[in-house]
Every structure is written in C-alpha cells, then in structure tokens.
Design goal:
The protein is α+β, with helices and mostly antiparallel strands and 369 residues long. The protein has ten helices and 14 strands. A five-stranded mixed β-sheet has the order 10-9-8-11-12. The protein has a four-stranded antiparallel β-sheet with strand order 1-7-6-2. Strands 3-4-5 form a three-stranded antiparallel β-sheet, with no helix packed on it. The termini are far apart.
Length: 369
C-alpha cells in the first residue's frame, strides 16, 4: 500500500456565516408569547444582578446565573432550558460590553415594547421536510427556505422580530472557505457623501450617493404628520431594504472582480455627531465595509481598512501634499498638482492613495501615512 494513502486528507477550512430567513406570519402569536417569557427571564437576571451588586459589589457571569435559573423550565416557563441559559449568557455579555450595573428592562406590552427575541442552542433545533422544529415550541415553524437549510449543519442562533412585526430566524452555519485568489487586480475605494465610492481603477465608474433616505423624506414626513404609524414603519423598512440591496449588489460585484480591496477608514461614528449626520447615516459606510469584509473572506480575497489621512491632499503621482484642504475646499472636485501638473479627480486620486497605502501594508506590515 502506498505510504501517501495512509495520510489523511486535510480538512477544509470553514467560516461561520449567519443565514437570515423569514418565518411565516401564522407563527406570530406563539412566538410573541415565547418572547414575553424571554423578557421575564431577562428582567429576572437584571434584577438579580442589581441585588448582587448591592450586597457583594461583583458582576455575575452566565455561569453564575445558571445556578439561579436551573429548573425554571419545569416550573411553568415554556422555554427550553438551553434557551434560558442563552438568555442569561447574553445578558452577562451585554452588561460587560456596556459596562453598566444594570441594563434596560425588556417590555412586553405598550408603545415602548421591546422587539421579540428568542435565542436557541444548536441542540434545540432540527430541520425536517422544509420545516424547523424547535424545543419549547409545540408546532413546526414554516419558513421561506431560500438557502436550502438541508445542505448545512445548523448551529446556534436566535429568532427575532422587526419593527413591522415580521419574524425571522438567524442561524449560524459552516461554509467552506475558498482558497486565496490569484491573478486578480487590486482596488482602492474612497468613501464619501457626494460620491459614495470612488475607485482607483479608471475602468470603473465612481458610484454617486443614492439618497435612500432623502428620496423618501417627503413621503415619510407626510405619513408622520398624519400619524400613520404602520405606513411610517413600512417606509423606514423600504429605505433600509433599498440601501441594503444596493450595497449587497455593489460589494458582490467588486469581490468577484478584484483579488484585494482596500477601503479608507473614515470615522462614521464621529461624523454622525456633526451637521452631516443625516447624509452619513444615509450612506451606510459601515454596512458596506462589513459586507466587503466577510464577502472577501468567503471568496479568498484580501480586504483591509487603510488610514485615509491626507489621501485627498496628496498627489497620487508625485506624492506632494498640494490638494484641496479643509471644509472650505470640499466643493473642489478636480484639481491640478502644481508640482507635476497632473489633473486629478478628487475621489479617484484619494482612492489611488488608499490603494498605494494598502499595498505598502502588505509588503511592510505597517501603515503608511
């Protein structure tokens, strides 16, 4: 027998992804009832944490809560024991994240009620004949299976409700990671407000800002003045869906075409606190970068966020810092470098500098300013 045949084949490298599928509306009543019990467990953990902090001045972990919630499923709470553990663990994680002694109470009724949320572990979920069977829920959950869940090993996740009362299931699955891409070009992207994405590749046309929110602002204002709450929620959902659809299509097209993508690290959270807040939120920079990040990882492409300081001012040809500066020069979209005479498009020049800095990080391993 050849010696090579005794060597086991290497296991494929996998990534974890979250699949989001919509559940059918006929399950809304039972899911809302289970979400109410989830809120009760959450509020119990919140109250218990306050008492422990008052007495002992210490924070509780998910393991600490397990001793207090053990057996709750047998005392009339229609939740799986692992779901109760998941609630306690999530509470401990969020309390640590926000560095607070207590978090907000989850409200089940009224105008300020919390949106439904039901966590579950992998062992509590089974997929059979196009339906999901979940421990703690007597009836099978029907859904629109656009991914083909039978082809995946299902992991932990959650069931969640959106503002319009629609329910979705979010399931973690393992997907095979693609080998590194070879032979494809690389791309620099400059994110902005007037131009959503400026590209270093002259073969690509820069993407102008889409005005997802501003385009529906008048219709939204009329619905708000008329106090049509359902219509207001519907318009907000349409705006979010249009933005998400646009970013998905653009990011997918770029990942398929390029083997390395570098994006400027524009600070959206800081700009939200300025008078440009509405335009910054409408652009959805963080969402777009997140999509590029995980899609590049799945496709075997390289992705990195690059320091974009002075990328607009630096000439991408001679590297002289001679471009438009500050707020007063925001309206300048084209300029000529006085040192080398090159005529630059503002966004494409910035994207070219981002690409140059991204390439330098691959070679040297440190940012280039």
């Amino acid at each position: 027998m050849p010696r090579d045949s005794l060597i086991p084949a290497p296991k494929p490298v996998t990534n974890t992804r979250v699949l989001r599928l919509r559940l059918k509306d006929k399950h809304a009543a039972v899911l809302r009832d289970r979400a109410m019990w989830v809120n009760q467990v959450w509020n119990y953990c919140n109250n218990l944490q306050q008492q422990v902090w008052t007495r002992e001045h210490r924070f509780m972990s998910g393991y600490d809560f397990a001793a207090y919630t053990k057996g709750a499923g047998k005392e009339g709470i229609p939740l799986h024991s692992q779901t109760i553990q998941g609630i306690a663990e999530e509470y401990a994680t969020r309390r640590k994240q926000f560095k607070k002694v207590k978090l907000r109470w989850r409200v089940s009724k009224g105008s300020k009620r919390s949106l439904g949320w039901i966590p579950f572990k992998a062992s509590a979920l089974q997929y059979r004949n196009g339906q999901l069977w979940m421990s703690g829920i007597d009836q099978p959950l029907c859904l629109w299976d656009s991914y083909g869940l039978a082809n995946y090993d299902l992991g932990a996740g959650s069931i969640s409700e959106d503002a319009r009362g629609r329910w979705y299931i979010n399931i973690t699955v393992k997907v095979v990671k693609q080998p590194p891409t070879e032979g494809k070009a690389d791309l620099g992207i400059d994110l902005g407000l007037k131009t959503l994405a400026g590209f270093s590749d002259p073969a690509l046309r820069n993407v102008e800002a889409q005005d997802f929110y501003r385009g529906a602002e008048l219709k939204l204002a009329m619905a708000q003045r008329a106090n049509k709450k359902r219509l207001v929620k519907s318009i907000h959902a349409q705006i979010a869906n249009r933005r998400k659809d646009h970013h998905h299509k653009l990011s997918t097209a770029l990942v398929k075409r390029y083997g390395a993508i570098f994006v400027g690290n524009v600070n959206a959270s800081a700009l939200v606190k300025t008078r440009m807040a509405k335009s910054v939120l409408d652009a959805g920079w963080s969402m777009f970068r997140t999509m590029l990040s995980y899609k590049c990882d799945d496709a075997g492409s390289w992705f990195d966020e690059v320091n974009e300081s002075f990328s607009t001012q630096d000439c991408s040809v001679c590297l002289a810092r001679s471009g438009p500066k500050g707020m007063k020069d925001l309206g300048i979209r084209e300029w000529t470098c006085p040192h080398c005479g090159t005529i630059h498009d503002r966004d494409r020049n910035s994207a070219s500098n981002i690409l140059r800095r991204g390439r330098a990080t691959l070679v040297v391993g440190i940012p280039v300013l």
